[in-house]
Design goal:
Elements: H1 21-32, H2 42-45, H3 63-66, H4 76-79, H5 81-104, H6 106-130, H7 133-153, H8 156-162, H9 167-196, H10 204-225, H11 241-245, H12 264-295, H13 311-346, H14 348-371, H15 375-404, H16 409-416, H17 418-440, H18 450-468, H19 481-490, H20 499-504, H21 513-541
Helix pairs in contact: 1-9, 1-10, 1-21, 5-7, 5-16, 5-17, 6-7, 6-10, 8-9, 9-10, 9-13, 9-15, 9-21, 12-13, 12-14, 12-15, 12-17, 12-18, 13-14, 13-15, 13-21, 14-15, 14-18, 15-16
């Protein structure tokens, strides 16, 4: 008998409603998406011992000494390494265990992800309590990072198989959740820290424990809600694109994950993702200081440059910049669903052409809008850029399914996420170091980002060239019928009895009370997160 978590136990029967799968994926992605919002803990943790004011470590305490010290507070720059670890571990764990996921199924991967991510937060809570940063890094950074990778790719293959007619939209819904996780988690964490804060505690330990327990419930519900379709299942009346329009960019065959490292098209799409993410992720980290330094006092109606402002004025423009950052997060999330859904109509290759051409035009035009003092054009450009940054994440799984087939697309996507890990280092390095270099040359603060924008434009052009070079795969890369049959056997797949039999017992698209409840369970927290974010955005427009 197969175990409770085994793939054989989650093969959907006739009449299963496929719209129950996206909220299951969202339940996991909204939780692990808190990785984007972990910086909400940095300031409280930087005074975890001093409570009201940080106890500095002194020049004799280096990074490695900070990992074990119990007598002084951690610096924010040290805490920031957690953010780097998240995305390096996400990419590497997704690449390492992607093949296992395809055979073990999304339920088992989701459960492991829940234990790793939530267990990692509990371990981090212990590290904060004992004031041992190495325990914090081991918990959320390493163990949690593994949970991030498995949770991120757990629904990809399943969603693509349930929605062969709308691959982009399906993956866009789930990956939108990863972008939205911080919108829920950050204000929730801030509220909890206020509740738990005492004269002797900043409240981070208790907050991590509560969030870990809440997230565990949601992630387990999501993992147990996963179902996979029978092999060969398709929506009633739907015709595959190849037979429908002779679209050579969408294959009906399948590539084994073990071959992708040697396929040129894989590396071209790897560069496509890396360049798109590098250009966007570098800006995300510097969005707030960039707006403040470029426009200075004009953000609050004062005709003074950034260096000429007093403390009160600096605090005022920082509030405006926080609203700008929140606005970008909304476009990042909305772009994931919008662009991925649009790619179902435009095609994946054309969608990325739009990303790179429009993105390059906008980056190239940013210095001009800054020089002209046009805050509206500057903000509008970055809103569109961030929508395409998010859209790139959400569109790429469908791109991979088109080129490499659906049999092992989750595992292939896992390996492609090493591009994200690379971009997570490359993008911020380019933006941060170019800024420091320009400042060292004596350039005014409002001009230090100009060269960076031109470099990012060049990176997008590299991505455009790689995207234009993507062609359908040669026959030699695809699995033979015998190899495919063996892979399906190892993946414990079950052939559909017939399309008619599957659909005769209930519509796979019908709205039912169960579907409404499932969507409400993820939709209400997401709506709350959007509401809290809009409150911050209002400060920008005010």
């Amino acid at each position: 008998m197969p175990g409770f978590l085994d793939k054989e136990r989650i093969i959907a029967g006739p009449g299963f409603n496929r719209w129950l799968v996206p909220p299951a994926a969202l339940a996991i992605h909204l939780c692990i998406g808190m990785a984007y919002g972990f910086s909400v803990f940095w300031l409280p943790l930087s005074r975890a011992l001093g409570i009201t004011e940080a106890i500095p470590c002194g020049p004799d305490v280096g990074f490695f000494a900070e990992l074990f010290t119990t007598t002084c507070d951690w610096e924010i720059s040290t805490l920031g390494w957690m953010y780097t670890l998240f995305f390096v571990l996400l990419g590497s764990s997704a690449a390492t265990w992607g093949g296992w996921l395809e055979r073990a199924g999304p339920r088992k991967a989701g459960v492991v992800s829940a234990f790793c991510w939530c267990g990692g937060m509990l371990i981090s809570a212990l590290g904060v309590y004992l004031h041992q940063f190495w325990i914090v890094i081991l918990g959320s950074g390493v163990i949690g990072g593994i949970g991030l990778g498995l949770g991120y790719i757990s629904p990809v293959s399943t969603l693509i198989k349930w929605f062969p007619d709308r691959r982009g939209m399906a993956t866009g819904m789930a990956i939108m959740g990863f972008g939205g996780g911080a919108m829920i988690g950050s204000p929730l964490a801030a509220d909890l820290m206020k509740i738990f804060a005492t004269p002797t505690s900043v409240g981070v330990t208790q907050t991590l424990v509560v969030m870990a327990l809440v997230y565990f419930v949601f992630m387990m519900a999501g993992a147990l809600g996963y179902r996979v379709p029978e092999t060969g299942w398709k929506p009633a009346g739907w015709t595959p694109p190849l037979a429908q329009a002779g679209n050579a960019m969408i294959t009906q065959r399948h590539v084994h994950v073990s071959k992708v490292w040697g396929i040129p098209q894989f590396w071209l799409i790897w560069m496509v993702l890396c360049m798109n993410v590098s250009a966007g992720i570098g800006v995300i980290g510097m969005a707030s200081p960039m707006l403040q330094e470029v426009f200075g006092g004009s953000l609050i109606g004062v005709a003074q440059k950034f260096d000429e402002l007093d403390k009160t004025q600096l605090a005022a423009i920082a509030t405006v910049a926080a609203g700008f950052t929140a606005l970008l997060s909304l476009f990042n999330i909305g772009g994931r669903f919008f662009w991925a859904s649009l790619s179902d109509t435009l095609g994946r290759k054309i969608t990325y052409v739009v990303f790179f051409v429009l993105g390059a035009v906008l980056y190239f035009g940013v210095p001009g809008s800054a020089a002209a003092g046009s805050i509206v054009l500057f903000v509008a450009a970055f809103c569109v850029i961030l929508s395409m940054y998010g859209g790139g994440f959400a569109t790429v799984p469908a791109y991979l399914a088109d080129i490499f087939g659906t049999q092992m697309v989750g595992a292939i996507h896992g390996r492609l996420l090493t591009a994200w890990a690379t971009a997570g280092v490359l993008g911020p390095v380019v933006v941060n170091y170019m800024r420091e270099y320009q400042l060292s040359l004596g350039l005014p603060r409002e001009q230090v980002y100009n060269q960076t924008m031109y470099i990012l434009t060049g990176m997008l052009m590299v991505g455009l060239i790689c995207n234009l070079m993507v062609r359908p795969l040669a026959d030699k890369w695809f699995m033979t019928d015998a190899e495919l049959a063996e892979e399906k056997r190892l993946a414990h797949e079950k052939e559909a009895v017939s399309e008619l039999a599957h659909d005769s017992e209930g519509s796979h698209d019908a709205v039912s009370p169960v579907v409404v409840v499932a969507w409400a369970a993820v939709g209400i927290p997401l709506a709350w997160g959007v509401y809290r974010t809009l409150q911050i955005v209002a400060k920008f427009f005010h």
